[in-house]
Write a structure and sequence with these properties.
The chain is built from twelve helices and nine strands. It has about 290 residues and is of the alpha+beta class. The protein folds into two domains: about 90 residues, 434 Repressor (Amino-terminal Domain) (Orthogonal Bundle), CATH 1.10.260; about 190 residues, Endonuclease, Chain A, CATH 3.30.870. The strands form two sheets. Strands 1-9-8-7-4-5-6 form a seven-stranded mixed sheet, sandwiched between helices. The chain has a two-stranded antiparallel sheet with strand order 2-3. A hairpin with a 2-residue loop joins strand 2 and strand 3. Helix 1 packs across helix 3 and helix 4 runs antiparallel to helix 5. The radius of gyration is 21 Å and the shape is elongated.
């Protein structure tokens, strides 16, 4: 488990960078070697090896070749996977996506950057409508309600950035989105009745997109395994890029980046899905809630 995006000086620890660093650390430990020994193979300082293993800096191909030779995996599939992962990480660090123009996104920047290149997102949200479904008025009401913003102009920029994310659901290569929301999140009158009625209508329209699957966890389901926290599983196609689990808490953003954590949350998501309404019944409930508001 790690917090992100982590920063040290002018360096940023990216999700894939941390994944790569973790693999390098695992290989070094399995070989029974120390960081100073790895540094000697690189003709570098121990501090550089520490930064590489923590994901603080991008890793060059020559460094990967040297370390793989030292760790006894030269010329193997492991080395090729590390090279692919390092390449993707370097490309993402250099990318200047639209989100970089929105400092108002704050801690969401790294997540939005990942979402922009992801192939699939599975999200469970028990408290509010997920960002990819939010109207501008709903997003604005949430921003005002959480009392974390003081400048109205900053709120407007934040809302603009959040709604811009929805472009990923359309186009030639849309993001595949599977969202499960609680009935409570659809009945909470965020922004008042007019705002919420329009929001539910927008959810219905968005759920009708070919790339989107939406289910609702109804009140009548009773106790279920998703009651403790919200989470999002982000999936990619690149070699070595395992699923990443993203979670927000009151004080920080958490990234769960191991295969074990990804598998555990995927299984949890499937259990939540089985207890939720079907897509057809979810739409029927949405339409009923829209009429009641």
């Amino acid at each position: 488990m790690t917090e992100g995006p982590a920063k040290q000086g002018n360096s940023t620890s990216s999700v894939l960078g941390r994944r790569l660093g973790g693999e390098l650390t695992r290989l070094r430990t399995a070989a029974g070697l120390t960081q100073p020994q790895a540094a000697q193979a690189l003709t570098a300082s121990t501090a550089k090896v520490a930064k590489l293993e923590r994901g603080w800096v991008p890793v060059r191909d020559p460094d990967i070749h040297a370390l793989c030779k030292l760790y006894g995996v030269e010329g193997t599939d492991t080395e090729r996977a590390l090279l692919d992962l390092a390449r993707v990480d370097r490309e993402r660090r250099k990318a200047k996506g639209w989100w970089n123009s929105y400092p108002e996104l704050r801690d969401m920047v790294e997540y939005v950057a990942l979402e922009d290149v992801a192939t699939t997102v599975r999200t469970w949200q028990p408290c509010f409508v997920p960002g990819l479904f939010q109207t501008a008025d709903y997003a604005r009401a949430l921003a005002v309600g959480n009392a974390a913003w003081e400048d109205p102009d900053e709120i407007e920029r934040f809302v603009e950035a959040k709604t811009a994310r929805q472009d990923r659901l359309r186009g030639d290569s849309p993001l595949s989105l599977w969202a499960i929301v609680s009935e409570a999140s659809l009945r909470q009158l965020v922004g008042g009745r007019d705002v919420m009625r329009a929001q539910v209508e927008h959810v219905i329209r968005t759920a009708g997109l070919p790339s989107v699957k939406l289910q609702v966890m109804p009140f009548r389901a009773g106790a279920h395994p998703g009651m403790t926290s919200a989470f999002t599983i982000v999936s990619f196609t690149e070699p070595g890029a395992v699923d990443v689990v993203h979670m927000d808490t009151t004080s920080t953003t958490l990234w769960l980046e191991s295969e074990r954590d990804a598998s555990r949350h995927a299984a949890l998501f499937d259990r939540i899905a089985r207890l939720s309404l079907s897509q057809h019944d979810s739409r029927a409930l949405l339409e009923s809630i829209r009429e009641e508001i």
